[in-house]
Design goal:
2 domains, Rossmann fold, 51% helix, disordered C terminus, alpha/beta
Length: 230
């Protein structure tokens, strides 16, 4: 099955055509795309960093494959790496994990171990990419907010009601309702739970947001000794 840009794919780096054919047959049984690369340089030069799936690396104790793993992050490649070893030793396994491998399989156990390992690795990578895309989208929406809207969002995340936010910002409850409506439109959600879940971390990252002191929303700030830790 040939790799499609829109679908997960298994990439194999190996200098051995026989090993490539063996792995290709196993991957074909899973119904996932497959591509073989005949060496680390070929993969580093040709692999799209946006690719999803998994990376299989056929390593030898003295080969260049482990050094390639250390170069993947600088190329923006985040595929989960599964190392395949014809000579599986404790030292090689240790070096593989140190270089960034997620799994280590002897070639002798491909039939029993590889299919399930690939299913888990590919599934997790797809979920991770979807989460990254949601986070990037959320950041782009958050960047559209005005300073006042960020203040209101920060107080919503703190759990304050409209009346409490109005007191904290010295505005009317009606004004807070208007800001909330604008937040819902700009952040593409009308659910408070979703608003908090998706944007609480961004609010925490925003150094410019106001720091709420316990009691401030009620117009009665607590004494410095009894304020919540910031």
């Amino acid at each position: 099955m040939i790799c499609s840009p829109r679908l997960p794919c298994i990439h194999l780096v190996t200098p051995n055509p026989t090993a490539g054919q063996r792995v290709a047959r196993l991957v074909a049984e899973l119904g996932i795309g497959f591509r073989a690369w005949w060496g680390p340089d070929a993969l580093l030069a040709g692999l799209d960093p946006e690719a999803t799936g998994a990376l299989l690396v056929d390593v030898s104790p003295a080969g260049p494959e482990l050094a390639m793993l250390e170069r993947l992050p600088s190329r923006g490649i985040d595929l989960p790496v599964i190392v395949l070893a014809r000579q599986a030793t404790v030292d090689l396994c240790r070096r593989a994990f140190k270089a960034g491998a997620r799994e280590f399989l002897p070639m002798s156990s491909l039939r029993s171990g590889l299919p399930d390992t690939l299913r888990k690795a590919v599934g997790q990578h797809v979920l991770d990419r979807q989460r990254q895309q949601r986070d990037l989208h959320a950041r782009s929406l958050y960047a559209r907010l005005s300073e006042r809207e960020r203040e209101v969002l920060g107080l919503l995340v703190e759990g304050l009601t409209n009346k409490e936010i109005a007191r904290a910002l010295a505005v009317s409850p009606r004004t807070v309702e208007v800001h909330r409506a604008r937040l819902a439109a700009k952040l593409e959600t009308d659910s408070l739970a979703k608003l908090v879940r998706q944007y609480a971390d961004l609010v925490d990252e925003d150094d410019g947001r106001p720091v709420l002191v316990c009691g401030q929303a009620w117009g009665e700030p607590l004494s410095p000794a009894s304020r919540r830790p910031v």
